[in-house]
Structure formats: structure tokens, C-alpha cells
Amino acid sequence: MSSRLQVEFAGVPFKNPVVMASGTFGFGREYADLFDIEKLGGISSKGLTLNPRSGNEGIRIWETPSGIMNSVGLENPGVEGFIQKDLDWVNSLDLVNVVNVGGHSIEDYVQAVERLNDVHLDLLELNISCPNVKQGGMNFGVKTELAAEVVRTIRKVCKHKLVVKMSPNAENIVDLAKACEAEGADGLSLVNTFLGMAIDINKRKPVFNNGYAGVSGPAIKPIALRMVHQVCKNVQVPVMGLGGISTWQDAIEFIMAGATVIQVGTATFMRPEKALDIIDGMERYCEENGIQNLSEIRGIV
Amino acid sequence: MATVIKNEAVGKDFYLLKASGSFNAKIGQFCMLRAWDEYPVLSRPISIFDCDEEGISFLYKVVGHGTELLAQLKPGDAIDVQGPYGNGFPEVKGKIALVGGGIGVAPLYYTAKVLKAQGNAVDLYLGFNDEALLKEDYENVCDNLVVNIGGYVTDDINPAEYEYVMTCGPHIMMEVLHKKVKGTGAQLYVSMENRMGCGVGACLVCSCKTKDGNKKVCKDGPVFKAEEVFTDEQ
Ligand SMILES: Cc1cc2nc3c(=O)[nH]c(=O)nc-3n(C[C@H](O)[C@H](O)[C@H](O)COP(=O)(O)OP(=O)(O)OC[C@H]3O[C@@H](n4cnc5c(N)ncnc54)[C@H](O)[C@@H]3O)c2cc1C
Ligand SMILES: Cc1cc2nc3c(=O)[nH]c(=O)nc-3n(C[C@H](O)[C@H](O)[C@H](O)COP(=O)(O)O)c2cc1C
Ligand code: FES
């Protein structure tokens, strides 16, 4: 690989800008058995919460045209479980280690982040949108004021580089992005899943126990791309763009919209090595178009 | 990419597909099949019906878009066969009954074939709604074949005659069997069928509750000891 795909995000160097999206790649172990995951740029961990969670009951995945809906409910081993069992392994890989943290109260976020202050990681991705998680009732990622409050509080305690992962369900995505930047986020990632719904017409009930669930995959790509474009035009901090990326052409679109790094989520379910095809395709595109580094086309649209 | 060797109807809406390639499959494992590019997004989990030097076979029922696309495949077409995945049935020694309901009979052919070749006594109990699938094939890989059409195959078995019972089929059938096997001394293994995303243990959409907390059907399963997944209050 040449240096064409090398990027820097909030001071962290990436050999290529392709990160596996939180919740779709575990901690990488399962996929390490299937392909050479060190060819990737980085991994964003399964969303961790302060305490272990067993996740939602009932159906957790449903297919939609060109997409999926999920309602996992943040099943995870908890921050401590991750530190004990998986962190060293993830750090031993030649990959950017993004640790994704979720929460259902500000206190939970704070304690989880404080525990992570003691360990090595490259970027802390704060998931402020947990539409699947009923407990607590509110979604921090919808209202600008609430998002700002979480980021302000976390910024004070967090010793790591802080990336705020935004919800596309935000009332005003640009205002919310600007507020996160103003409160000290080192970068932003967007988008998380869109709130959606499916109804079982035979049972006359929602498919998911929680009623609503998160939509991801190619179906959301145009909207995610538009949001990434809007946000990139309005903030100075670097942006990780995601939402439905499944080809290298999609990835180049997000870069042209202004993203520094892109993440691949649902597409991995099509074929485990999809992200490697994306990296190869981006490299080829740069070569064929005489692009020495992606920065030449970043945000050109 | 594997290549389709044959793909034939073996009953109404049931197909047997064989793909070339060398697969080291264990009994009761499954593969994620894909014969399309990006859409549908998800690959389809299908049990391994048989595996030999020539390739790997799948018995499937057309129930929706994905299996419809599989049914259209012709010899020479490409098919993405990801796997084999999952733990599979244990290779035990003794007197074994295999109980299948509907398309749940699929993994039991290879299971019977391998367990019998290892010198075990293997009886097959297969339940169907209206027609028996591949009766002669199943007959050839077991000591006794019992076929039940339209009734409850669980009525036909006396679990006390066996050391091990392995089952795959509708949840309700497996639960009934669990109640029947309990207390007989036979050990029951059940193969679970949850909706899957990744198929490899990374996304946690296939979690199932067990005595020892959540387990992933795709990676820790699909086969579990019955008492791990069926709690007694049910
Ligand atoms: C471990 C395992 C082994 C299986 N083995 C076989 C087999 O050998 N032969 C066979 O015919 N079928 C088998 N199934 C069921 C098979 O996966 C589904 O029938 C198939 O995915 C339906 O896809 P579709 O596109 O035709 O239907 P659709 O209804 O259009 O599928 C939509 C979505 O729902 C999922 N889905 C639908 N029905 C089921 C189901 N019953 N279980 C799990 N997911 C489902 C699909 O994978 C897909 O993601 C197995 C399932 C599992 C989990
Ligand atoms: C099964 C599944 C689990 C997810 N879990 C998390 C999570 O724990 N934390 C998080 O921030 N995002 C989670 N996401 C959202 C993805 O990281 C990503 O933002 C979203 O799926 C959009 O990208 P995609 O279309 O490429 O999948 C999850 C998505 C899926 C499909
Ligand atoms: S299907 Fe992804 S963990 Fe089982």
C-alpha cells in the first residue's frame, strides 16, 4: 500500500481511513479468524457500558429493502470485562483502537470514561444515541442542549481523544455538531442508526419488543451522506463518516463530502472482507486519478 | 466462490443444492449462503445437509426472497458459501436417536451418516406436514427410519431406549421433546434457529438466553444441551 490512503484524525495516524463500525465487528476476534484484519485502518469496539448488559429481548434483527433494522440493546461485557478480556489483544494489533462507549445516564457515562482513563486506547467514541435502550427513557443525541451537556461533562473527565458519535435523529444535526465541537470534542462520527419500525401484520404487533429499532445499511446512505456533508461544512474538527457504505465508490463519496475517516458497518454482514475491497478500490481510484493523498479530494464537493 | 454442481427440486418448495469445493464440515454446522451481490443485505444461514470429497450440500425450503434466489441457481452458477460455522452436534458414542421436524431434518442426514460410520446405532425420526423428503437417502444412513406425516413425530419415540437424542425443528417440537426426554437418562441436544446478521459471533443479534447467560446461536451454538436453553417453567 502507498501513502495515498494515509490520514491523520485528531492527531492519530491511520494507514488507511477505513474503520469497522461499532457493534458490527465485535472486538475483532471473530473476523481475525477469517481474514487479515490488520489490513484495516481501525476497529470501533462494540458499544461498552459501565456495567455488563444482556441486551433486548425478542427479535433483534429484521431485513428491509437494502438495509436492516437492529435492536440489540447494547449487549456487552461492560467496560471492566472488556479491559480484562479484550483490550490488550486489540492494542496488540496494528490498528487504530477506537473504544465506543454508551450509557443511559450521565453518571454511567462518566464512570465508564473514568475507568477507561487508566488504560491505553487511541480514540474514545462517545455514543450519545442509544435509540434501542429504553432504560432511562431519553436519547441524548436528539436535543442539542442535552448532547452539549453530556459532551461538556465527559470532556472534563476524559483524558483520551474524544470523538462524539452523533445520531441522525438529532433535531438539528448542524447545531448539535457545532455544540459538540464547542464543548471540546476532538472529532465527530456520524451517523448512527435511524429510528425505524416494522409491524408483524399477522400478529398485529411491532416486530421488535421495543417498538422501534435502528435502520442501517445501503438504504440510509444518501441521507447519511447529506448529513456528513452538512456537518463537515460547519465544523473544523475532523469527521468520521458512515451510514450504508458498502462499496469503494460510497467511501470516496463520503471523503468528497468532507469525511477524514469512513466506517463500514452493515456491509460486513454481506461478506466479511467487504472493507478490504473498499480499501483496495479507494487505492486504485487514487492511482488512476493521480491522487497522491486523499486530502486532495476531501471536502471538494 | 463455490460453483453450483446441482440444484434440484426434491419436493414441493424443497430443493437440494450441491456446491463444489473442499469443506471440512462437522455434523450440525451451517453455512451462510449468498448467491447475489448486495441485495438482500444478509446472507442466509442454511444447515449442512451433506459433505463429501466433491462438495457440500444443502436442503432448503423456499420461504422468501433469499431462498427464491437460491432456487433459481443452475449448475455452473457461482455461490458464496461462507463457513462452515457453529459448533455442531457432538460426536458421541452410543445409542442415538435423531429427531427432525419439517426443514429441521436438513442437518440430520450428514449427522446420521457420520455417527453411523463411527459405529453408533442411529435411529431417525422424521416428521413432515404432507410429504416425506428424500426417504431413501435417509434410510441409507441409519438403522431404523420412522417417518411421521401429518402427526407428531415426538409421539413416535421412546427416549428411554437411547443414550443421546439430537433434534432440529420447530421450537415447540423441541420443547415437547425436552419434556419427554427429561428424567429418562438420555441426553438431549437441540439445534436452535435464530435470525442472524454476521453469522460469526460479532453482532449479537442471534443471542439466546441460557442457564449460563447469553450465548450466540451462530458461534456458541446452534447446538445446545436442551437443559441449557429450555428452562423448566416454560
Ligand atoms: C442455524 C440455522 C440453520 C438453518 N438451516 C436451514 C436449512 O437447512 N434449510 C432451510 O430451508 N432453512 C434453514 N434455516 C432457516 C433459513 O435460514 C430461513 O428460512 C431463510 O433465511 C429464509 O430466507 P428468505 O430470504 O427465503 O426468507 P425471508 O423471510 O425473506 O427472510 C428475511 C430475513 O429473515 C431471516 N429468516 C427468515 N426465516 C428465518 C428462520 N426460520 N430462521 C432464521 N432466520 C430466518 C432471513 O435469514 C432473512 O434475514 C436455518 C436457520 C438457521 C438460523
Ligand atoms: C447490529 C448492530 C449493532 C450496533 N451496535 C452499535 C453500538 O453498540 N454502538 C454504536 O455506536 N453504534 C452501533 N451500531 C451502529 C453502527 O455502528 C453504525 O453507526 C450504523 O449501523 C450505520 O452504519 P452502516 O449503515 O454502515 O451499518 C450498530 C449497528 C448494528 C447494525
Ligand atoms: S449472527 Fe452475529 S453474533 Fe450471531
Q: What is the element layout, followed by pairings?
A:
The complex is a heterodimer of chains A (301) and B (234).
Chain A: E1 7-9, E2 12-14, E3 18-20, H1 29-32, E4 42-44, E5 61-64, E6 67-70, H2 78-85, H3 87-92, E7 96-101, H4 106-117, E8 123-127, H5 144-157, E9 162-165, H6 173-182, E10 187-190, E11 194-197, E12 199-200, E13 205-206, E14 212-216, H7 221-232, E15 239-241, H8 248-256, E16 261-264, H9 274-288
Parallel strand pairs in A: 3-4, 3-16, 4-7, 7-8, 8-9, 9-10, 10-15, 15-16
Antiparallel strand pairs in A: 1-2, 5-6, 6-14, 11-14, 12-13
Chain B: E1 2-11, E2 14-20, E3 30-34, E4 44-47, E5 50-51, E6 55-61, H1 65-71, E7 78-85, E8 95-101, H2 108-117, E9 121-128, H3 135-139, E10 144-149, E11 164-168, H4 171-181, E12 187-191, E13 207-210, E14 213-216, E15 223-225, H5 226-229
Bound molecules: flavin-adenine dinucleotide, flavin mononucleotide and FE2/S2 (inorganic) cluster.
Flavin-adenine dinucleotide (FAD) is lined by residues 30, 42, 44-47, 59-61, 63-67, 103, 106, 193-196, 222 of chain B.
Question: What features would you describe in this structure?
Answer:
The complex is a heterodimer of chains A (301) and B (234). Chain A is an alpha/beta fold and 301 residues long. Chain A has a single domain, classed as TIM Barrel. Helix content of chain A is 30%, strand content 20%. In chain A, α7 packs parallel to α8 and α8 crosses α9. The longest helix of chain A is centred in the C-terminal third of the chain and has 15 residues. Chain A is globular. The two termini of chain A are 26 Å apart. About 2% of the residues of chain A have low confidence. By secondary structure, chain B is an alpha/beta fold. Chain B folds into 2 domains: 84 residues, Beta Barrel (Elongation Factor Tu (Ef-tu), domain 3); 135 residues, Nucleotide-binding domain of ferredoxin-NADP reductase (FNR) module (Rossmann fold, 3-Layer(aba) Sandwich). Chain B is 16% helix and 36% strand. Chain B contains 5 helices and 15 strands. In chain B, strands 4-3-7-1-2-6-5 form a 7-stranded antiparallel β-sheet. The radius of gyration of chain B is 17 Å and the shape is globular. The model of chain B has no long low-confidence stretch (mean pLDDT 95). The complex binds flavin-adenine dinucleotide, flavin mononucleotide and FE2/S2 (inorganic) cluster. Flavin mononucleotide sits at the interface of chains A and B.
